[in-house]
Amino acid sequence: MNIIITGGTSGLGYRTAFILAKDNKNKIILIGKNKAKGNQAIKSLTNETNNENISFLQADLSSISETSSLREKLADKKIDVLINNAGALFYSRLESVDGIEKTLALNHLSYFILSNLLLKNKIIKNGARIINVASGAHRGVDINFDDIEMVNNYNGWVCYKKSKLCNILFTKKLSKLVSKNNITVNCLHPGFVKTSFGKNNTGVIGLIIKFLMTLFAIKVEEGAETIIYLATSDDVKNISGEYFYQSKINKPSNFAENNKSADNLWDLSLKILKNNNLTL
Question: What's the fold here for domain 2-275?
Fold first, then answer.
């Protein structure tokens, strides 16, 4: 299989790549921002799995232009599995190079842009699988479509929670749009995984995240299990639009099952991108 993994140079994405690369018939394409980390990931994965079919594409996925440039870089590929995994938590409000709140830009819009561009250009094959890494953190919040970038009353944790809600709403909407091509779209909560996630935040916040991970986080191998299941298992080849936890369909929050919100998110995402000179 030809497999794309965003955010695949470390943590959950890297472990997912490692497991999938152990099957030498699989060709793995990692996408990330840091070229040095990407090259090191290729070297390590190749040495650990003896799979020579591992490559890296550099792109800042919080950037609309860099994400959309992947369309040309992948033009000659036929993708069987797209794993949208890149994401981050920003406790201070930051903006992307496009002036978009960075959590929204990276955690939601990168999934939206990459999936749609690869589908539009038939780079994702009929019968393929799209897997969106969401989170149980989506519970307890809804989206304010009048202030989706949280210009007012920014809270980094709440913003992250809302971005994960976006992942599920996007999954629900996209699954309906691609069903005619026998393409499945599912999302998942990997669990609270012990990775470098959140450590881009310094000071007290960074220490709290590190402390919580030491006490409560599961091993990265456990976190990858549901992603591997969705990417490879025949049990889910005809299942689409669902939210999984521990390799089982799990009921997300009521807000995540709101079809009107899914439609509104889709339309607003298109509008944001159009305002930044990208029409899907």
Answer: Rossmann fold (3.40.50)
Give catalytic status of residue 154 as yes or no: yes
Q: Which of 91, 154, 160, 229 is catalytic?
A: 154
Q: What is the pLDDT of residues 243-253, one digit of tens each?
A: 999 999 999 99
Overall pTM > 0.85: yes
Tell me the C-alpha distance between 241 and 189, whole Å: 14
Whole-Å CA distances, 246 to 79, 95, 136, 187, 250: 25, 34, 12, 12, 9
- Using a 10 angstrom Cβ sphere, with 0-12 exposed, 13-18 middle and 19 or more buried, the burial of residue 238 is exposed
**Domain spans of the chain, in order of start:** 2-275
Residues 61-70: tens digit of each pLDDT: 999 999 999 9
Sign of CA dihedral 25, 221, 171, 277: negative
Residues in the chain with pLDDT values less than 50: 194, 198-203, 207-209, 211-213, 215-217
Q: Which residue has the tokens 């794993």?
A: 83
The two three-digit tokens of residue 67, written as one number: 């994400």
Q: What is the largest CA-CA distance in the chain?
A: 50
